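Budget justification aside, the reviewers requested a transparent look at the raw inputs and outputs of the sequence design task funded under Objective 1. We therefore reproduce one unedited record. The lines immediately below are the structure tokens for a 447-residue chain.
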């Protein structure tokens, strides 16, 4: 993966900041052609073209007219958002902030730093977050609706084979080099001295608030939770069980207006104030401080991983077993530390690897385990990991033997699309839909 590819990928990811996907039609002038309207939601021609370019660049398996399929998907997405409003299907803003934070951390990690991101694109991180918030919320609502509509869809091996046989041989995609790699991650644990200092800082904030300082002012200035900091630390209403157990226990153990002692959760240390309680729902605000690991804490993690590496290399311990037991990366630990693609297969195209991982395995041989090294996790946390380069699969044309998981996923997606189309036909009468006559040939509104 070269720098040209990385920048091109990043531009595609950030383009959504300037093209208002899912923007309501009454929110201002749109400098683009509207090709579909679903109640107050619009689809722009640039969305269709961008979606088509991204699809073709991935070399995915499909049947039929790709542009029509993408347009239908975009219209269905807008319909799902409109129906979600009618059916009171919601996504909490705090959930959107969490996903937004992960995506921004990824963007920043790819380009190098917040300062470089702002320099290259001429926007502040805060502006990016503001522009992306509504778009990500729409995507999350769509995912939630899709889950409700097609949750129980399954597919048999015979259906997979039948799907594959219907694809013309000259339409089968050609897959680039793929690799099977895994990592075992340790997040350095800040030592007790660092944690005690954080507790003292929060206790000082508590004294200031009890002596007249505004909680929201301190939260805006010092809280390391960027989503709530902009709201003076206020999180909004949550149900029991939706926030960290330690946080919830402290919040619900107080009267409105009271302030907690410092509370430790997996996210850091919180100073919490209960604002209001309505049965099992409660509104609170907090100041979050996240302790940072020292260099000695990082070295301790490196030493631990080095001992695990030795047990793999010299004692023939299985990497996947150790990863399941010891890795702090919850996204991969359940899979034995291995990365998987969107289809669940433990084979990743080298073009999809982040630069750090690409250049790591570029210096390794198949079967090797790297020495421990520091890196940034997708959420921005500092961590240490070892990497196992298990296999390398050369470029090849799609076939059932080597690519069954990808073909199965394509067949399942095709079946789900059919269910979504049926749902679309049944739901389209409940909202206003208009599609530009240029796309009449797609027959999207026809049975």
């Amino acid at each position: 993966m070269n720098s040209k590819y990385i920048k091109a990928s990043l531009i595609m990811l950030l383009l959504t900041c300037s093209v208002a996907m899912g923007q309501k039609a009454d929110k201002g002038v749109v400098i683009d052609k509207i090709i579909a309207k679903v109640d107050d939601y619009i689809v722009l021609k640039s969305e269709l073209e961008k979606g088509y370019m991204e699809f073709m660049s991935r070399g995915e398996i499909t049947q039929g007219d790709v542009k029509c399929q993408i347009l239908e998907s975009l219209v269905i997405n807008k319909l799902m958002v409109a129906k979600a409003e009618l059916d009171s299907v919601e996504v909490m803003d705090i959930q959107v902030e969490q996903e937004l934070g992960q995506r921004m951390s990824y963007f920043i990690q790819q380009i190098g730093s917040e300062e470089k991101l702002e320099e290259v694109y001429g926007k502040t991180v805060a502006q990016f977050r503001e522009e992306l918030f509504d778009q990500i919320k729409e995507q999350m609502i769509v995912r939630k609706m899709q889950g409700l509509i097609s949750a129980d869809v399954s597919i048999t091996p015979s259906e997979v084979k039948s799907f594959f046989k219907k694809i013309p041989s000259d339409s089968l995609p050609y897959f680039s080099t793929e690799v099977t790699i895994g990592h075992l991650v340790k997040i350095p644990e800040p030592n007790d001295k660092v944690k005690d200092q954080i507790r003292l800082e929060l206790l000082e904030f508590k004294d200031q608030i009890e002596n007249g300082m505004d909680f929201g002012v301190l939260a805006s200035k010092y809280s390391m939770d960027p989503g709530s900091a902009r709201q003076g630390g206020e999180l909004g209403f949550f149900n029991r069980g939706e926030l960290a157990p330690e946080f919830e226990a402290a919040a619900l153990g107080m009267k409105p207006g009271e302030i907690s002692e410092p509370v430790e959760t997996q996210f850091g240390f919180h100073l919490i104030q209960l604002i209001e309680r309505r049965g099992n729902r409660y509104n609170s605000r907090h100041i979050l401080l996240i302790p940072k690991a020292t260099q000695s804490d990082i070295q301790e993690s490196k030493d631990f991983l080095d001992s695990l590496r030795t047990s793999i290399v010299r004692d023939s311990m299985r990497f996947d077993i150790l990863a399941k037991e010891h890795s702090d990366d919850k996204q991969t630990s359940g899979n034995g530390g291995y990365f998987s693609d969107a289809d669940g297969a433990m084979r990743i195209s080298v073009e999809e690897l982040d630069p750090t991982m690409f250049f790591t395995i570029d210096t390794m041989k198949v079967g090797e385990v790297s020495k421990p090294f520091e890196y940034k996790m997708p959420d921005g946390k500092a961590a240490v990991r070892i990497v196992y380069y298990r296999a390398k699969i050369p470029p090849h044309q799609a076939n059932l033997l080597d690519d069954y998981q990808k073909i199965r996923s394509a067949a399942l997606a095709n079946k789900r699309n059919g269910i979504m189309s049926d749902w679309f036909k049944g739901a389209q009468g409940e909202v206003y839909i208009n599609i530009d006559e240029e796309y009449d040939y797609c027959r999207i509104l026809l049975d």
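Residues 1-30 have pLDDT under 50 and may be disordered. The first strand starts at residue 34 and ends at 38. Computational costs for records of this kind are itemized in the attached budget.
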